[in-house]
Amino acid sequence: MQISQLARQNIQALTPYQSARRLGGQGDIWLNANEYPISPNFELNNRTFNRYPEPQPQAVIERYATYAGVSPYNVLVSRGGDESIELIIRAFCELNDSILYCPPTYGMYAVSAETCGIASKTVPLTADFQLDLEQIAQNLEGVKVVFVCSPNNPTGTLIKRLDLIQLLQMTQNKAIVVVDEAYIEFCPEATMVNELKNYPHLAIIRTLSKAFALAGLRCGFTLANKELINVLQKVIAPYPLPVPVADIAAQALLPQGIFAMRQQVQMIVSECENLQKNLKNLPLVEQVFESHGNYLLVKFNDGQKVFQTLWEQGIILRNQHTALGLENCIRITIGTAEENKKLFEAIETMSP
Ligand SMILES: *Cc1c(COP(=O)(O)O)cnc(C)c1O
């Protein structure tokens, strides 16, 4: 008997999440994981390492609540936004329930569900990457959690607020609606936070990994009403946040940290517009999709060739070729001005 055959059946069948780091590559320009291109600098203040950390570090919770415009009891902090996805599935799905999500979208909803042995239902986004509410309504039977990513990764699309409201209305008393706002800092006016008061089954996922430039920290948040947060508190690990993580997260959420984040966002948004304009003019580019995140989804006439050619030059992008409806599409994270210039020149050089 092989050890791998002792694993649960669904784990034997599981294809793990293909994270950018897992996919590898050798390069000096990393535009494949939607990270911020430059590291912020922090010193550790708390050097008490012999004691367990606070389960929910107060300074982090309070400062994030202030930043997000909610009360501390509306906030749960976890090991990245990814942990929040799994907590919600674990806390709300019975073994014969399912989750529902709308591809092409973030891959972790499916992987987390599969890991927990929970089935996934999919209702593809429409041609303009919006919710197909009619199809969702027809597929809600047995669905306990609906995941919507807005701005959506990898398309960059903002899901229409009125559609999200309709989704919240049709799921009332039936299912949790998770709005994944990992990229919300790039379009803060689109947040659904102000709907928390109206919908007890709304959960919003946030992270320090993108606009805050702290992907290495592994720190994310769930925003929801008290009752929902209390359910998640029951299943989260006893000490999810290491002392150094809580220490740095608390600093990043001070006024000067938020100010720095907003400057980072400004730089990325302006670089993004620039790159979008430039790429549009290249003959081998078919379409540059409108993006509200720190990345661009670009359709090429031969996406595989562009991806491979740049990969060989050490410019690592995220291939979306196998994502639903995204043939020949590549997701490009916005880097520094210099990185974006090198990227553009590499693609321009390929043009006939
Ligand atoms: C990056 C990302 C997350 C969370 O990332 P963490 O690093 O685990 O906080 C969640 N959802 C989407 C869509 C993302 O792109």
TrEMBL record:
Its EC number is 2.6.1.9. Residues 43-347 form the Aminotransferase class I/classII large domain. It catalyses: L-histidinol phosphate + 2-oxoglutarate = 3-(imidazol-4-yl)-2-oxopropyl phosphate + L-glutamate. Its cofactor is pyridoxal 5'-phosphate. The modification N6-(pyridoxal phosphate)lysine is found at K210. The keyword Cytoplasm does not apply. Pathway: Amino-acid biosynthesis; L-histidine biosynthesis; L-histidine from 5-phospho-alpha-D-ribose 1-diphosphate: step 7/9. GO terms for biological process: L-histidine biosynthetic process. One of its GO terms (molecular function) is pyridoxal phosphate binding. Keywords: Amino-acid biosynthesis, Aminotransferase, Histidine biosynthesis, Pyridoxal phosphate, Transferase. Pfam families: Aminotran_1_2. Homodimer. Belongs to the class-II pyridoxal-phosphate-dependent aminotransferase family. Histidinol-phosphate aminotransferase subfamily. NCBIfam families: hisC. HAMAP family: HisC_aminotrans_2. This is Histidinol-phosphate aminotransferase. It comes from Canicola haemoglobinophilus. The lineage of its organism: Bacteria, Pseudomonadati, Pseudomonadota, Gammaproteobacteria, Pasteurellales. The gene is hisC_2.
